[in-house]
Amino acid sequence: MGKFIEFLVREGGIQLESVRIAGFSLGGQTVGYVGKYLKGQLPVIIGVDPAGPLFSENSDDRLTYQDAKYVEVIHTNGLKLGYDKPLGHVDFYPNNGRTQPGCTNDLAGNCAHGRGLLYFVESITSEKGFWGTRCDSRDDITKDGCVNGDGTLRKMGGDPKENQIVNQRQVYWMRTNEEEPFAMGVQHGFWAKRCETRDDITESGCVNGDGMLRKMGGDPTFNQIVNQRQVFWLRTNDEEPFALGIAGIE
């Protein structure tokens, strides 16, 4: 596949900067091979529950955050068919990333493993979207949320053009529905999008930013301490109720 992409760039006139690739299960590890072959120059790789068996020990062959400029990973059946530890720049762990709601008697993990693909496919056209809450580490993620985290949100999957590069590796938790549509979105509250500086904030949004969200006001226990100063932009209604939910940052 790496050679084919090189051929398309050389003979087909496409720009490498426009190429995004995604892979599921063993394909989720294979896209790492492609990224390595292209020396990490691909803009975006998305690994959907990358295979765990034979990749769990120290291995130079598995997907890593160095395989593209932005590597996103969705974990749904870690410790069984999928790989459990963070691999990308951003790793999402729906429902703790090991078992999935609605997958009853799933001893082999096939249902939970397959949910990763269903979540990713739905994310491409979902109006609600799959929004994850940032946790401090993989060990802080449970099936019910983050033990420790800073309260910011990020959208999983979707249009790869929306996946912006982050300056540090991150992990996110989210809850999903038991059946389609799986995405639960974020409907209420004042949600704001993070911008790089005050000068990057305009009336219509951020000139530069990383796409992460944070809730303004509300329950003070939700907003946890952050390790760096941050600025956020949001839109409101003209009259009460002022809160737009996620629509306030789109």
UniProtKB/TrEMBL annotation:
One Pfam match: Lipase
Organism: Culicoides sonorensis
A GO molecular-function annotation: lipase activity
Protein name: CSON006107 protein
Domain Lipase: start-end pairs: 2-182
Localization in the cell: Secreted
InterPro entries: AB_hydrolase_fold, Lipase, TAG_lipase
Top-level taxonomic group: Eukaryota
Entry GO terms, CC: extracellular space
Protein family membership: Belongs to the AB hydrolase superfamily. Lipase family.
Signal peptide limits: none
GO biological-process terms attached to the record: lipid catabolic process
Keyword list, A-Z: Secreted
Gene3D superfamilies, A to Z: alpha/beta hydrolase
